[in-house]
Amino acid sequence: MASRQDDSAAAALAAVRAEIDAIDDRLLELLNRRAACAQRVAEIKSAAGEADCFHRPEREAEVLRRMAANNRGPLSREAVTRFFRELMSECLALEKPLAVAFLGPEGTFTQQAAYRHFGHAIQTVPLTTIDEIFRSVERGTCHYGVVPVENSTEGVITHTLDSFLRSPLQITGEVSLPIHHHLLGKVADLAAIEELYSHQQSFAQCRGWLDRHLPKPRRVPVSSNAEAARRAAATPGSAAIAGEVTAELYGLAILASNIEDEPDNTTRFLVIGRTGIQRTGHDKTSLLLSMPNHPGALYRVLEPLARHRISMSKIESRPSRRGIWDYVFFIDVEGHRDDSPLAEALQELEQRATMLKVLGSYPRAPD
Questions:
Q1: Whole-angstrom distance, CA of residue 97 vs CA of residue 93
Q2: 278-363 belongs to which CATH class?
Q3: Torsion 38-43-45-50 (CA) sign
Q4: Which of 137, 124, 128 is CA-nearest to residue 167?
Q5: Rounded distance, CA 328 to CA 312, Å?
Q6: What is the CATH number of domain 97-179+266-271?
Q7: Which segments of 85-154 are extended strands (E)?
Q8: Which CATH number fits domain 27-94: 2.60.120.10, 2.40.30.170, 3.50.50.60, 1.20.59.10?
Q9: What does pTM read for this prediction?
Q10: What's phi and psi for 92, nearest 5 deg?
Q11: Active site residue ranges
């Protein structure tokens, strides 16, 4: 009896595996048909003199949203989105690989955000400062840049906001990346750690854990967590706070996992480019504005947003650098600048503010 059951199970397993093989063969054929279509798109654009418009973020956002909505499982929505993101990345690379600047060196969370947004078939260009990222995109050295703008526990990255004051670049996308910090090193145990390297933001995000478990080692701030991992790999008796990807990159062991104080620690990144993008129906718009410094000025300037029922999801003030106690406001609102309610509200804002700059309308990051 057992032998017959084993034979039956083996036959059923062989049948399922044969079906999987047939599906894989069909998938391979369809994937290459899709890639060939992408090549034809490039040829059509080139013949029409539109070779510089090879990347269409709004089209990619539409495809990802449609695939996620049509997914019936058992694959998760995230898995389907990730697969199609990588597929589109590879197909786009057949036309022209995107050069994307990020805050280096290799292995930073900013690089992870770039891969999450564009897929892995891109040329990532590590730069040492946020200013350099803006300049590389402004000069056309890179097609896009990815910069951090705020963290859920530590607030805004002021250097990024200040860069928009002088830059003509547009925001073309956003990425929300869960941040998990790990203690990395080559030491035998925590007691052997004498120096600890990390970015200042990561020290702040792990302060409670460090005070409890590593109160004695000297904390040395560095330019990035990837740089921290590089130093820890080269310095005996040291360790670093960094992401999991840097452990393999720099040959370090994970001494402690998820040491951030807030388990839902998330950083928001902005994608910057030279041109704006069309509406997708699921968009966000970022604004920069200033106004006279007198009572009720902020209420008066922003009143059209409320009247046109425009949801404002963020407001942040920064010194304008034009005078003492003169401020500008960074504001995020729901909708695209071409949507009629928001377009009407922006016309009124422009009349009431002393300065209004639309930093970009772009697809909202998935929830």
A1: 4
A2: alpha beta
A3: positive
A4: 137
A5: 16
A6: 3.40.190.10
A7: 99-103, 123-127, 144-151
A8: 1.20.59.10
A9: 0.87
A10: -65, -35
A11: 267, 269
DSSP alpha helices (H): ranges in 167-259? 200-205, 207-213, 225-234, 244-250
Select from 138, 139, 131, 144 the least CA-distant residue to 101: 144
Q: Count other C-beta atoms under 10 Å from residue 324's C-beta.
A: 6
- 53: pLDDT confidence band, cut at 50, 70 and 90? low
- CB of 144 within 8 A of CB of 97? no
CA distance 183 to 247: 9
CATH of 182-256, one of 3.40.50.1000, 3.40.120.10, 3.40.190.10, 1.10.8.60: 3.40.190.10
For residue range 61-92, what is the model confidence (pLDDT) as tens digits? Answer: 999 999 999 999 999 999 999 999 999 999 99
Q: Is 22 exposed, middle or buried (0-12, 13-18, 19+ CB in 10 A)?
A: exposed
User: Quick check: helix, strand or coil at residue 297?
Assistant: helix
Q: Is 270 helix (H, G, I), strand (E, B) or coil?
A: strand
